[in-house]
Amino acid sequence: MPQFERVITVKQLLEDKGEDLSLELISGKKSLRREIIKASVNRPGLALDGHLENYRAEIVQIIGRGEYAFCANLSSAKLKTNFLKMLATDSVPCVIVTAGMRVLPGIAAACKQRHVPLLTTSMDTASFVSELIAYLDDLLAPRAHLHGVLIKVSGMGVLIRGDAGIGKSECALELIKRGHILVADDVVEVRRMHGGRLAGSCPPMLRHYMEVRGLGILDIELLFGVGSSADSTSIEMEVNLVSPTDGFIERLGIEQQTAEILGVHVNSLTIPVTPGRNLAVLIEVAALNQRLKGHGIVSAKEFNKKLLAKMKGCKNGSE
Predict the structure, then answer these.
(1) CATH top class, domain 3-139
(2) What is the per-residue pLDDT for 194?
């Protein structure tokens, strides 16, 4: 599975969210190409007193009210010395002072000497950190491009996969006719979001388009209306369409199959493709059945319990 990771610069952060996050650049204009590589922030504790054990220099450094109160009790020279130690590595993206607090001279001098961008925001620390992480999480989430079709079936994101020509797009087209929603056809961009959730979307050039063999390229929105497509959805289930000769197929469904995508396990189902089978209906019912499983109702296990109880009753009766 081809995976790729993104980085953004402090300059992009300012351009994208400077106004929304009330960010103001104090110094370091020439260093705005420093990269932010993780969707996380660091509120330095012991590092402010010169102890750098477990100090995470590679992420955005936040100076909130608590950190500011500690720094304000240090002499300007001591504060500058400690910050110079913190900023000694080139991996520090930037330092942000929150809650509209005035930048202390020791912090300003250290950032200027180390050429680290120094920013302030008038936002409260908790609100600022929450919005910043949400923005970084969206942009920096690990990603992969998968071959398949992503459909919202009864509100559940279903990733349909299988070999080329097996009927993924035709199946998706039937689902769209039945009122379900197309997210991506052929190329699905998958992101691993915070909390281990998978989100799928379509590359902008391919959005709301579908290729069906024999029909060519179709504009789904023009054919079925704007409500027939969506930009993204969570991926909650994978369906693999396979040839009936591709090995053993689970018939009862007692054991839940899973597939690993970007390190996240999602529920998986394998459906053999044979003439006369209505794959769209099968996937529609599979999504509804998966909803039941999410509520602890597993029909196959319930049936198995009843069957075993019946067999036990027959055995006892024969004795």
Answers:
(1) alpha beta
(2) 77
Where in the chain do CATH 3.40.1390.20 domains reside?
3-139
The one catalytic residue in 29, 251, 295, 315 is: 251
Q: Which residue in the list 147, 178, 197, 265 is annotated as catalytic?
A: 147
Order of strands, sheet of 41-42, starting from the edge strand that comes earlier in the sequence: 23-27, 118-121, 95-97, 60-63, 41-42
In this model, does residue 19 exceed pLDDT 90? yes
Q: How confident is the model at residue 214 (pLDDT cuts 50, 70, 90)?
A: confident
> Out of 80, 114, 168, 192, which one is annotated catalytic?
168
User: What average pLDDT does range 273-293 have in this prediction?
Assistant: 87
- State mean pLDDT over 123-135: 95
Q: Would you say 286 and 160 are in contact if contact means Cβ atoms under 8 Å apart?
A: no
103 and 120 Cβ atoms separated by less than 8 Å: yes
Give CA separation, 244 vs 165, 247, 270, 277, in Å.
15, 7, 10, 12
Q: Is 192 an annotated catalytic residue?
A: no
Task: Please give the share of the chain, as a percent, with pLDDT higher than 70.
Answer: 93
The CATH 3.40.50.300 domain(s) of the chain lie at 142-302
Q: Measured at the alpha carbon of residue 23, what is the angle toward residues 21 and 29, in degrees to the nearest 5? A: 145
Would residue 147 show up in a list of annotated catalytic residues for this protein? yes
For residue 186, indicate whether it is catalytic: yes
Q: Which of 49, 137, 163, 186 is catalytic?
A: 186
User: What DSSP letter does each residue of 269-281 carry, written as one string?
Assistant: EEEE--TT--HHH
Instruction: Examine the pLDDT at 137 and tell me if it is beyond 70.
Output: yes
Q: Is 219 labeled as catalytic in the residue annotation?
A: no
Report pLDDT digits (tens) over 40-52. 999 998 999 989 9
Q: What CATH number matches the domain at 142-302, 3.40.190.10, 3.40.50.150, 3.40.50.300, 3.40.190.170?
A: 3.40.50.300
